[in-house]
Amino acid sequence: SPILSISDAVKTYGDTHALNQVNLDVAEGEFLTLLGPSGSGKTTLLSAIAGFIKMDSGKLTLRAEDITNRPPEHRDFGMVFQGYALFPTMTVRENVAFPLKVRKKPSSEITKRVNEALEMVQMGAFADRMPSQLSGGQQQRIALARAMSFSPQVLLLDEPLSALDKKLRADLQWELKALHNQLGVTFIYVTHDQDEALSMSDRIIILKDGGIQQQGDPNTLYNRP
Ligand code: ADP
Ligand code: ADP
Questions:
Q1: Looking at the predicted structure, is the pLDDT value of residue 225 above 90?
Q2: Cα of 196 to ligand 2 centre, how many Å?
């Protein structure tokens, strides 16, 4: 059974159907990518899953439990969103510790998990820096460590690499994929970059005008041998 299900999701802004009857099942451990041009509804769909926006109608279940009306902080997703940057006045360590503190974990566990998360993204040496002292790619690594520090079952990522240059983007794509394979966590990944979607995804959902236009694994979708 799917880890996450969205049924009949509708969200309109005036005359715009940002989500137009979207139905989607996400399998446990899947790397699912939402692909589509600007304005196709990718961020709206991810934000509805995260709970940042309320759907006009529709239902969302996590492991068969109805979470449609649950606030974002009680959905327990790891999140890397554009509008969800590192806290600039906190050190790297404090940033990564934040989701654990919110969840009232004991301090010994926080220390251990923060160190593990920083090692995971190879940023252990930067624990006491401020975000402003890091490059864009390093900041994204820390954002990823923060999103994963509490071992979420599902990670939501909204164009996490779009602000980075081409070389760094390629490196981090590879690292993200490796992390996904290693952890077995479910990834829901938003991008407008077809190459990025092709190189990382188990399944690609192509959105258009707020609806699912096409979906499949990369090879089937693009007829590759
Ligand atoms: P994408 O992430 O694929 O670029 P969005 O989900 O951001 O697309 O937007 C889908 C559509 O909904 C677009 O037409 C966008 O202009 C509109 N939209 C999204 N958020 C809002 C909002 N807060 N107010 C008005 N229109 C919005
Ligand atoms: P993306 O990079 O995914 O296309 P956008 O830049 O379109 O994202 O949107 C960023 C934020 O602005 C989102 O939270 C979205 O809901 C909001 N937004 C998008 N379109 C509109 C709009 N037409 N009016 C108001 N808010 C919007």
A1: no
A2: 21
Ligand sitting nearest the alpha carbon of 163 = 2
Q: Which residues pair with 66 in a beta bridge?
A: 61
Report how far residue 48's alpha carbon sits from residue 173's, in angstroms, rounded to the nearest whole number. 25
- The number of C-alpha atoms within 13 Å of 180 and in the hemisphere containing its C-beta is 24
HEC per residue, the chain: CCCEEEEEEEEEECCEEEEEEEEEEECCCCEEEEECCCCCCHHHHHHHHHCCCCCCEEEEEECCEECCCCCHHHCCCEEECCCCCCCCCCCHHHHHHHHHHHCCCCHHHHHHHHHHHHHHCCCHHHCCCCHHHCCHHHHHHHHHHHHHCCCCCEEEEECCCCCCCHHHHHHHHHHHHHHHHHHCCEEEEEECCHHHHHHHCCEEEEEECCEEEEEECHHHHCCCC
Cα separation, 187 vs 37, in Å, equals: 20
Q: Does the interface ipTM go beyond 0.85? A: no
Q: Distance (Å, rounded) from C-alpha 148 to C-alpha 190? A: 17
Ligand 2 atom with minimal separation from the 38 CA: 4
Model confidence, pTM: 0.89
Using the atom order of ligand 1, give the atom closest to the CA of residue 38. 4
Q: Which of 145-149, 178-182, 204-208 has the lowest mean pLDDT?
A: 178-182
